[in-house]
Amino acid sequence: MYRLGIDIGGTFTDLVLVNAVTGDQLLGKVLTTPDNPSLGALDGVKRLLEDAGIEAGDLRHVIHGTTLVINALIEQKGARTGLLTTRGFRDILEMRRGKRFDIDDLFIEVPSPLVPRSRVGEIAERMDHSGRAIEPLDDVHARAAVEAMVAHGVEAIAVSFLHAYRNGAHEERVREMIREVAPDVAVSLSSEVSPDVREYERTSTTVANAYTQPIMRRYLDRMAAELARTGYNHDLYLMLSDAGLTTVDTATAFPIRLMESGPAGGAVTARYYSELLGRPNLVAFDMGGTTAKIMFVADGEIITADELETARRYRFKRGSGIPIRIPVVEMLEIGSGGGGIAALNEMGLLKVGPHSAGAQPGPACYGRGGELPTVTDANLLLGYLNPDYFLGGRMKLDAASAQASMEPLCASSGLSPERVAWGIHEIVTEDMAQAAQLHLLERGVDPRKFALLAFGGAGPLHACGLARKLGISEVIIPYAAGVASAFGFLAAPLSITLMQGHPTALKGADTAAINALLARLEEKGRRFLKDAGVADDEIRLRRFASLRYRGQSSELKITLSNDALDAATMDDLTTAFSDEFERVYGRANRRVGVEALNWQVQVSGPKPQLATAQAVARATNPSVGERMAYFAAAGCRLPTSAIPRSILKPGIELRGPLLIEEDESTTVIPPDTTLTVDEYFNLIIKLDPKQH
Predict the structure, then answer these.
(1) What are the pLDDT digits (tens) for 180-224?
(2) 67 CB-near residues (< 8 Å, 6+ apart)
(3) Is 190:160 a contact under the CB 8 Å cutoff?
(4) From CA 622, how far away is CA 634, in angstroms rounded?
C-alpha cells in the first residue's frame, strides 16, 4: 500500500511517496507553478510514480497541503465577497479592535479589509449575550439586504451577527434566503466558522473564510479531477492548520482552516521524531524557499493556539494584521527563506526579507531571470551548495549570476562578495534566532533544554548556526529533511477540533450546561470521523478550556480531563491555570477569579503506522568530493568534505567541517562539531558547548 504526501510551498512543491509496509520512501521536489499550483504538483506526482514503477491506482491515500488560502489573503486575490451583519455594526471591519497597536506611530498602517464598506449590509435582528433573541429577525428587511448584496455581483457572502456564537438561528435563516435568491453564491456563517466570543475576530475569520471559499472549491475540484484522470480512485485528504487531516468537503466549507497546512505538516514530523527518538522536547525549525518557521513539541505534544494573524503590515507587531480565530499549530513565521531578498535599509545597513524571489523568477543563481541577491545566492557563493547537484542534479546553479547579483551591495558597502554573502547568511540566521528566543521565552520555554530538529530545503544549511545562537547543543537532521513537511502529512491522523464560545466564571459555574456543551462538540466530532471511516473504538478525545484571570484580554489553553466536570473539577482547573500562568509569566495572582471564554474538543483517529524509513542509495548521488567553504569561526574558507548522505551508515562518527548533500537539501556542519548517524539514518550533530 502506497501513500503520497504533496506540500505546495511558495517556491518548491515537495512530494513523499511511502510504501506503508516496508517504509521505503521516494522523494520529489519540483518548482511551484504560482499561476496554477496544481500543474507543478501533478507533474511531480507523475514523475514520482514513474520513478517508483507504480500506477496511480496503487495509491491508497493522497494527502495535500497548500499555501493557496494564505496567499489569497496576503495578496488580497480572493473572491468578490460581501458581509451581512447586525444593524448598527456595519463598521466592525473598519474599527478593528478599537485600539492602536503602536501608539507612537502617527502614520500607522493596517491591512485593508477584505470586504469594503460598500459591500457590508445591515440586517435588523439582535441576540443578547446568552443567545436569547431580543429583536426577532426581520425577514422582509433581511431578504432585501440579501438581494442588494447579490446585486453587487458577489461570489461569496459572510454572515456574522452579534452573539451568534451562542445562537446561530438568525444566521441559518439568512443562509436559507441566500440559497433561495442566489444558490451559486458561497455562504459562511460565523456560528459555524468561528463560534467565538470576540466580535471583530469572529467576523474577520468568517469574512476570510468566505473570501477564499470559491477559489478553494475550484482548486480542489480541479485537483481531485486531475488525480482521478491519472487513475487515483480514493479520497483526497487535506492537512489542517492544527496538524490534523480532513476531507475535501470540510476543506471546501472551511478553507480558512487550511491557512497553515504546510507548516502544520512540519509540526507532525517533529512529533513523529519526538516519539521515535525519545526526545519529548524539540524545537522544530522549518526553512523553505519563501519563509522560515519555528514550532515546538513539549512533553511529546504539538503546542497549538487559537489565533494567528496574516497580512501583517509590520513584522512581529501583533495587531498589524488580519486576525484569524482557528485552531492552529503555535508557530513563529518570518519572511526569510532561501529566496529572501537582501537589500540595504534606509540607514545603509544590510537586511534580508521579508520580500522573496519565490519560484518565479527565483534567486539569481536559478538562471530564470532573477537579478536580486538572495539567501540561496549567498549560500552558493559561500561554498555550501554544489552548483552541479541542486535538486539531485536536475537543476544547475549559476555562480556567476549569484555573484553579479551581489555587486550593487558590494559597491555600496565596500565589502567583497564573500563578506556580503556571509553577512546575508549571518543576518538571516540572527533574525531567526532573535525571533525564536522571543517566541519561546514568551511561552516560558528555555531552548537550552531542547534539541533542534531542522528540515526544509534551507533549514539544514542554517541549523547549526541557529542552534548556537539559541544555546542548543544538539541538532537533528531527519532523513529526507528537505521534504519533511510532506512526510508529516503521512504521519497525521484524521482529526477535527471544535470550539464553542461560552464565557463563564469557574467558581459557581453551571457544570451541567458545560458538560452538555462538551458532549455536543464531541458527538459532532465523532460523527465527522465515523463518516470518514474511523471506527468508534479508535477515536481519541482531548478537551481544552481557554482561561484567563477575570478582566484580562488574553487566555491560556488548559487541558481538561475527559471525565464529567463538577465543582471539584473547577477548583482543580483554577489551580492548573494559575500554575501554568506562573510558569509562563513568572508569577500568579491566585486571589483573582478565573473565567473561561471558550471550550474545545479535539476528536482524532489513530495515527498512521509507518514502517521505519530505509535509506536507499540513488544513482544521482555524486562521489565524495571536497570544496572550499567559508566558516566565520576560522575567518576564511576551509577545505570541506562534501559527502552524499546516502552513503552514511548508522554508527558512523565524523568531525566537522562537513557538507552532507542529498537531493532535497544540504547540511552545513561547521568545525568543532561532531556528526553521528543513528539507527534511523538521522544526522545527530553535537555542538561544542564552549563555542556557544
Answers:
(1) 999 999 999 999 999 999 999 999 999 999 999 999 999 999 898
(2) 8, 9, 10, 37, 261, 262
(3) yes
(4) 27
